[in-house]
Amino acid sequence: MNDPVEHPACPAFVLVRPQMGENIGAAARAMWNFGLDRMRIVAPRDGWPNPNATAMASGAGRLLDEAQLSDDVATSVGDCSYVFATTARARDLTKPVFSPEAAMRLAAERIAAGQRVAVLFGPERAGLENEDIARANAIISVPVNPQFASLNLAQCVLLVGYEWMRATGEVTHESTEMAGTEWAETLEVEHLAHHYQDRLEQAGFFFPEHKAQSMKTNLRNMWSRMPLTRADVQMMHGVLRQMVRWKMRDD
Amino acid sequence: MNDPVEHPACPAFVLVRPQMGENIGAAARAMWNFGLDRMRIVAPRDGWPNPNATAMASGAGRLLDEAQLSDDVATSVGDCSYVFATTARARDLTKPVFSPEAAMRLAAERIAAGQRVAVLFGPERAGLENEDIARANAIISVPVNPQFASLNLAQCVLLVGYEWMRATGEVTHESTEMAGTEWAETLEVEHLAHHYQDRLEQAGFFFPEHKAQSMKTNLRNMWSRMPLTRADVQMMHGVLRQMVRWKMRDD
C-alpha cells in the first residue's frame, strides 16, 4: 500500500522554536548517529536556512536539507497520529509520562503499525510551552539528577535517539491492540479542538475571564490525551453541530 | 571497612589525554546530570587546571576541583578492580564487549559488592589507543549508525552516565503513567454517557431512526474507551450544560 518514502520507518524529531543554528546542526548530528533522518523545524529564531546550522551539521547536512519547516507546532505535526513532548520540568497538565525507553518502544510499535509519530523538543533555554505540550499525546521525561538537570538540546535529542535505536534493535512483537483502527491524525484533532473552542466561546463557556485561558488549555490538553479514532472525531463534531442546530431551532 | 566517602557508590569516569578544556568541562556537566561525580583525568593536553574547562563546567565545577590527575592510565585506575574502555571502532583485542546498558548493570553489581570500577574515555579525535584498552577488563561499545558514528567526548560520557542512572536509579521503570491522577470511576462515566445521550436525544442527534441505536452504542463505547479523569468528566458535563444554557438563552 504505502511505500517506505511515504511511511517513514522512524519518528520525526521536531525542533520547536530553536534559537542557535549551531544547536540545530548538533541536533542533526545527534539524530543521524542513531539512524534518524526525519527532522522538522518550527519557527527557528534566526530564519531558515541557517549557515551556522549547516556548518555544524557536517556529515548530517542532508537532514537539514530535507527538514520540513513550519510556522507552528499544530501544522508541523498535523499528519502524525501520536506526538510526544520532551520536558525537563514537571507540568500541571494531566498526560501520560514515559521514560525515553518506554516512549521509543511505544513509538516503534506504532510506526510498525503504519502510524506517523513525532517527538517535540523545546527551545534551548525555556523548553516547550504548555501550549505546545497540550498538543502532545504524551510526555517524555528524561531521568536526570534532580540537583542538576542541564541537558542541552542536542543531548536531549541524543538520548531519545539512542533509545530509538535500542527499541528498534529489540522490537519483535507488534501491538495487536486495536489493529486496523484508523486513528485520527493530529490535524484532525486540532480541527476538532478548534471547533469546540470556537462554539464554546460563542456559548459563553470560558468564564470567568481570568480562568478562560487555563480552561482552554485544559480542554485542548484533553483532546490530545484521548486515543481518538477518525470515527470518534466525526462523532464529536456531529455532537457539537447538533447542539448548535438545536440552539438555532425554535422549540 | 571503608566509609562511603572512600568507597564512592559510583564508577570513576576517566578522561584519557583529553584535548580541549571545553570538552572536559562538558564531560563534567554530562556526568553530574546523572549523579556521577568521580572524575579522573590522565595527561590533559593543555595542563591542569584549565580555565576553559572551569568556564564550561558551570554548575559541575566541583567535579573538576576534585578530579584526580595522573600521568598515565595505569596509575589512574590502579586502585580499581574492574575497568571498562569505551570505543567506537571494533578492535583486534580479544576482550568482552558490552552495551552501555549491560556494562553499567555490571558496574552497579560490582560497586554494590564493594569494588571500585572505572570507565575510560579516549581523546576527542583518535579515541583510546590499544595500549589503553589492553589495560581494561572489558569494552563498552555504543551502538551507533554504522554510516555515521560521530559522538563527541561529552556525548559518549552522557550516554554511559545515562545508563548508569538507569541501572541504579528508581528511574528505570517503564512509565510513571499519570501517577496520582484521579481517574473517573465507572459510575461517573456512566452518568456522563447518560447526560450526553439524553441531551442529544432532545436535540435530535440520533437520526435517522434506524441508525439511532448504533449511534448510541458508538457514543457509549467511546466514553468507555477514553482514559477519562474526574476533571475531564466534569469538563465534559460543563461543555454540555453550557450548550444547553446557550440554547435556552435568547441571542
From TrEMBL, chains A, B:
An annotated GO BP: methylation
Signal peptide, first to last residue: none
Presence of keyword Transferase: yes
Pfam families tied to this protein: SpoU_methylase
InterPro entries: Alpha/beta_knot_MTases, RNA_MeTrfase_TrmJ/LasT, SpoU_MeTrfase, tRNA_m1G_MTases_N
Molecular functions (GO terms): methyltransferase activity
Keywords annotated in UniProt: Cytoplasm, Methyltransferase, S-adenosyl-L-methionine, Transferase, tRNA processing
Main localization, broad class: cytoplasm
Alphabetized SUPFAM superfamilies for the sequence: alpha/beta knot (SSF75217)
Domain tRNA/rRNA methyltransferase SpoU type positions: 13-162
Matches recorded under CDD domains: SpoU-like_TrmJ
Presence of the UniProt keyword GTP-binding in the record: no
Coiled coil region boundaries: none
This enzyme's EC code(s): 2.1.1.200
Catalytic activities: uridine(32) in tRNA + S-adenosyl-L-methionine = 2'-O-methyluridine(32) in tRNA + S-adenosyl-L-homocysteine + H(+); cytidine(32) in tRNA + S-adenosyl-L-methionine = 2'-O-methylcytidine(32) in tRNA + S-adenosyl-L-homocysteine + H(+)
Superkingdom as given in the UniProt entry: Bacteria
UniProt subcellular location: Cytoplasm
Assembly, per entry: Homodimer.
Reported function: Catalyzes the formation of 2'O-methylated cytidine (Cm32) or 2'O-methylated uridine (Um32) at position 32 in tRNA.
Family in the record: Belongs to the class IV-like SAM-binding methyltransferase superfamily. RNA methyltransferase TrmH family.
Name of the featured protein: tRNA (cytidine/uridine-2'-O-)-methyltransferase TrmJ
Organism of origin: Roseobacter fucihabitans
